[in-house]
Structure formats: structure tokens, C-alpha cells
Amino acid sequence: MKKTMERLSNFEILRIISMLLIICHHFALYSGFRYPSSTITMNSVFIQFLSYGGQLGVNLFVLISGYFLVKNEFKVKKAVKLWMDISIYAIIIMLIFAIAGTDFNFFEVVKNIFPIPYNMWWFATSYFMMYLLSGYINKLICALSKRELDHLILLLIVICSILPTFMAARMTSTLMWFFLLYIIAARIRLYALTNKVFDHSLMIGAIGYVFCLGSCVLFDIIGTKIAIFSDYATYFARIDSITMLFCSIFLFIGFKNLNIKHSKVINTIAATTFGVYLLHENEYIRPFLWKTVFHSAEHANDNRLILYAIGAILATFALCSFISYTYNKTIGRWINALLTKAK
After folding, report:
1. How far is CA 175 from the centre of its chain?
2. Which terms does the record give in the GO molecular function aspect (predicted)?
């Protein structure tokens, strides 16, 4: 067995953390929490902090993918497997809800059969498109010198992040944003980071994230006096803000620099994270999970909200991870065998 093919557990831990951050975001976003902008409470700030985790989680997830994909050849089998996984998750969930009594019209059935073109999961669609283009992206990266690649990254950062941050207008698509993250991760993989500042990447990334959260609190405080400021509380914590971008990059580099031995348990859990996303972010499971199962909004002003949120988030991850693991060992394995025979 080639050791170079073995998954590194430092990145797999980061993959798990990324998905937990995404679940935090969805817990805050879809539970129905409503707090008046005229007052600030510990609970309102906590929910706000949770909501920003998803931005960081998505960036980290794509950076991890770009880091590994730049060294891999595009495989039609993997693209077909990814398409089938996403479609099967959607179809199975639809069938379960149909059996439970949910009515589906013709368009909804078609959408669940073809979830990628109908953008049922925006992240899954963008990720699939990124993988389809990965072979061409890799050829572009290999054709550029280090200097040219740095110039391309700088240009894209200006277009995709700096200008949107200071002009408050998004100029690119989600796929373009993924492309930027992909080539940044590729740059980190292909060329050594010699500047001593990268030795402290984890600390710098953490400080950057604290800054993002702190800016939200500051805008909230000002918003109690000048209402319009509360509308911009997420300004520096948006997925494409320059602060969130650099925070994501430094945290990613920080985890890359960690010396964590290969762990089968960690890597097995990490392999379930995409399934965790497809399950808990499904448009039928989403309201059922946060509003029917957990009744999250009812705890908006509860003194134990923080503990309740942590419990709900961890329980969601654990259950979805178990289901995803079961899928990987059964249907996923069957798909792999089928595609291998069809080769």
C-alpha cells in the first residue's frame, strides 16, 4: 500500500469540524429564532455566532477538496458515483416522506430525481460542477508558473472578495468562488510556504475569526442606537468577505501543519460528512429536524440555550453520520461495484 494514498487525519479532523460548523449555521438559520435589534442578549449573540460558522465551514471544505484534487486525475467513475449518491439520497428521502403522507407534485418528483441540475442542494451542485471542471483546472494550474499562479490568485481575490467586501456587491457566482478556493489550496499543495508567518497560521486564523465575530457584536451594539447598522452585522463574516477568506486560508494552513497520525476512526467519520450535509440540509428534513424534532425556537430565551444547541448539533451530526456510514457500506459499496463492472 502506498502511504501517500492514505488520508491524513489532520485534514479529516478539519473536515469534521467544517461540517459541524455548517450544522451550527443551519441550526441558527432554520430554527426560527427572532431577536429584536433594539436589545442584545447572550442568547442572541450566541445564535449569531453559530450562524457565521457555516461560511467558514464551506470555505474550509472546498479548500480541503482543492488540496487533494489538484494531485488527482479526473475520473468519470467518480463523477458518476457523486451524481448517483446525491440523486439516491434525494429519492430515498422523498420516498420516506411520501410514505409518511407528504404529497409531491410532478415538478417536485422530477426535482428529487435530478437534484443536481435543479440545484436542490446549492453546495452539492457547485461541488459537483467543480469536480467536473477539476481536470481542466489542474491543467491550467500546471501550465502556469508559480509567479503567474500567484498573479491569477491575487486577481481573483480582488474580483471575488476585496471588491465585494468594500463595494457591498457580489460580482461572481458560487462556482467562481469555489474555483478561487480550489486554486488557493492547489498553490498551498504545490509550492512550499516559506514565510515564517505561516508557522503561526492556526493562531492568525483564530484571531481572524474572533475579529469577524467581534465585528458582528460591534455592529449589533451600534445597531441598538442606529437601526441600519444591525442589518450589516454579518458584513465581515460573509463567505466571500476578505476577512473570512483569509481566516479560512490561515486556519486551513494551520491544520495542514499539524502532525496528527493516521486514525481509522477519524477518517471513517470524516468520510460520512458529505452524507451528513445531504441528510440534514434536505429541504424536507430541514423543517422537520429543527422545528418539529428539536423545537429549537422555543428555547430562544432559555438560560440553557447554549447547552441545548450543542446537544442538538452533536445529535444531528451523530445520527446523520451513522446513516451516511450505513449508506456508504451498503448502497455506496454496491454503486462502486456496479461502476467497476461497467468500466
Report:
1. 13
2. acyltransferase activity, transferring groups other than amino-acyl groups
Given a contact cutoff of 8 angstroms between Cβ atoms, the answer to whether 18 and 269 are in contact is no
Per the listing, cell 502556469 goes with 144
Question: Is the separation of the CB atoms in 128 and 82 below 8 Å?
Answer: yes
DSSP notation for 189-210: HHS---SGGGGGHHHHHHHHHH
Q: Can you read off the three cell numbers belonging to residue 226? A: 442606529
Contact 242, 282 (CB under 8 A): no
- For 288-313, what is each residue's pLDDT tens digit? 999 999 998 899 899 999 999 999 99
Annotated domain spans of the chain = 3-341
Q: Which sign does the torsion angle of CA 306, 309, 313, 316 carry?
A: positive
If you write DSSP's letter for every residue of 116-177 in order, what string do you get? Answer: TTTTSSHHHHHHHHHHHHHHHHHHHHHHS-HHHHHHHHHHHHIIIIIHHHHH----S-HHHH
Would you say residue 104 has pLDDT above 90? yes
Amino acid letter, 163: L
Residues 6+ positions from 104 with CB-CB distance below 8 Å: 94, 97, 98, 112
Quick count: other Cβ atoms within 10 Å of Cβ 208?
A: 21
The dihedral sign for the CA sequence 79, 84, 90, 93: negative
User: Residues 103, 108, 114, 115: is their CA dihedral positive or negative?
Assistant: negative
How far is 4 from 46, CA to CA, in rounded Å?
41
Backbone phi, then psi, for 299, in 5-degree steps? -105, 15
Q: d(Cα 228, Cα 234) in Å, to the nearest integer?
A: 12
> What is the rounded distance in angstroms from the CA atom of residue 279 to the CA atom of residue 336?
21
Residues 240-268 pLDDT 10s: 989 999 999 999 999 999 988 889 999 99
Handedness of CA 8, 13, 19, 25 (dihedral sign): negative
Whole-model pTM over 0.85: yes
Residue that has been written with the C-alpha cell 478556493 in this structure: 181
Can you list the alpha helix ranges (DSSP code H) found in 100-121? 106-113
| Cell (9 digits) for 296 | 429549537
